[in-house]
Amino acid sequence: MQATPLRLREKCAWGALGLLGFIGLWTALSAFGIVPRQFLPSPLDVLARFVHLLTTPFAGATLPQHLASSFQRYAYGVLLAAFIGVPLGLLMGWFRWLDDVVTPLFDGLRFIAPIAWVPFAALWFGVGIGGPILIIFAGAFPPCLINAYRGARFVEPRLIEAARMLGTGHLRMILEILLPAATPSIVSGLRVAAGLGWQSLVGAELIVAAAGVGFMMVQAQANVATPTVMAGMVAIGLVGMAIDVMLRQGEAWLRRRRGLPA
Amino acid sequence: MIGRRAWVGLGSVAAMLLLWFGLTTATGLISPGRFPSPADFWLSLNQIASRGYAGAALAAHALQSVKLVVLGFLVAIATGVPLGLWMGWDRRAEAAINPVFLIIRPIPPLAWIPLAILGDGAKIMVIWFAAFVPSVINAFAGVRNIDRPIIEAAQMLGTPRWRMVTEIIAPAAAPMIFTGLRLSLQASWTTLVAAELVGALAGIGFVLNMAQQDIYPGMILVGMVTVGVLGWATTSVLGLAERRALAWNVAGRD
Amino acid sequence: MGSIRFDKVDKVFGPVSGGVKALDDINLEIADKEFVAIVGPSGCGKTTCLRMVAGFEPPSAGIVSVNGKTVTSPGPDRAVVFQQFALFPWKTVRENIELGLRNKNLPRAERDGLVAGALRLMNLESHAGAFPHQLSGGMQQRVAIARAYVLDPEVLLMDEPFGALDAQTRVVMQEELVRLARVNPRTVLFITHAVEEAVYLADRVAIMTRRPGRIKEVLDIRSVRAAENWDRHERIEDVMDLESFVHLRTQIWKSLREEKGPHGA
Question: What is the pTM of this model?
């Protein structure tokens, strides 16, 4: 594997090349009718529509307003998942008995795809904010828990032994040994959780919301306004990318501090 | 192997079941319109297993769903893992592909659902979009986390490109790759159920959809439990594969 | 054939200006089949020298060459024995040793023969099917050496190979290495901070300064060994008892002590 990271200039150059290639391919597919126009409008159509939606409302609000509404639900769901999942995972990684109690329950629920909660979410919350949050939580929770658990469980045994030899109590062990050691795994889990949460969000909004980007896309689908659907996708993609970039920066900073390769 | 651990587990589950019974049938704190009682659940299960619901019996619906999930999953990992490995190894590939990947990735595959109505192939494509991502991310991380000396030793031994990938990088990254596979499988199930909720005429998601429209909580729960069981079954198969592939790995506090 | 040459070599880590200068004007020539040890304080850059010959790091200035050809990339002609063994945990002992030979596309029969020879040489025959984590440190290092040796490389690069071993195993390995070197000599660059090990094993010992590392002096051991006939003694402790040995060792210690800072760092 190449040891040295690329300089920023090189990174941008290659990135630009990749993006151009992608857009070129898209334009070709649409322009030459390889994929029917209904399903794949040209990049220009989508861009125009995107700009239009920045100021003109569709399905009740402008695009930025829909995004804000979606992001709020998303944030609640993911933060809830992180604040419950990470500590629980760490505790389960350390206290065997807790692992034994929780794991069967978690294993039972874990395999139920988050989206399968939609019928109940609709039943309980109608189109209220609780529905999407429930579904996002269901999606974002497992990676938070699992990664924290694995991070704590698979800490280098020597480190645990050294800490025990030094008379480290439970709380300190978890906060000063397990948590730092598990942090790379936790951060990786948060990245995945953030991604899954964002995806679950739209899935949830497709069915149980009265505002938000997913809702906007459903309305557009119903009217076969595909450029709007894709404009929504672009918006979701951009926000998702921003979230991921921030998390990656955080992850890279952390790895540098720890002396791990970038 | 029925050790202390299994007993504690059984205890947890038993406690949950008691709680369920208590909150619904015994005290009526949760009304049947909101969440089914154990009895409601049992009745619904019987119905769909024997007489059928939403057009077919439980087994037929389950088979349909599993078929699509497995196909979509396999396509996703066959493309995602190699891509992740490549991006992990070659920094130029990473720099070129990452921006596109980052934009595509958060776009919900569910936005392609209208296409999914077109049939099984479209559903598999939608599953591919969803399951592809975790495999790439984890394969990528797996490669980046490989100990430098291992790579250097392989280079020193004059290992050619193809062998480097199959005999050095893939095994070294295998633990993280399998983490990615687990996540991909989860994503496959999620996407499939969503696709079937919205645009299908068979499958467990379709059952859930019908149950929601009929306001039939007992059947909703049956659908959810079935999704859970099928998810568990497929994940266990994956777990078996993982155990065989990682037999050499000495991790854990056990 | 297997000569190594450092020609005005510098090494800077980090950005070109303001980075850490690890090596400063290294000049060293190692003749074919010569065994040279580099000793020096921690962080002096001795491992970096080895890594440059191995092809893992390029010099910032100057030329590192083997057989007159500038080193550009790693390869089995310059086999490396790593301090942390760097065995492939998912491969058995046999598979670890075999990989280099498979990369050379040797036919099965020849490979099996060479591997069997290496296993015998390193006393690993009964462990051929084991995984690295099932072996002790000493055995793992044997596997690492076998893996390098089986390639019959012109140049053998050993980076504190016995550093992770206990004292007894270390002694056994040192004796073995001497035995191998006498029987089948090749160019060896050996990094260590154990002075006695260097004097026992090497033909010449190069002493490096503190960072930025420079070659302070190079002592000739071979002539003393020949003159005093160290080889008449089989056991390491008998050699280390000899006055000529002690004299050389002390000379090196004194030189290294000068490299320590005022607080012995």
Answer: 0.73
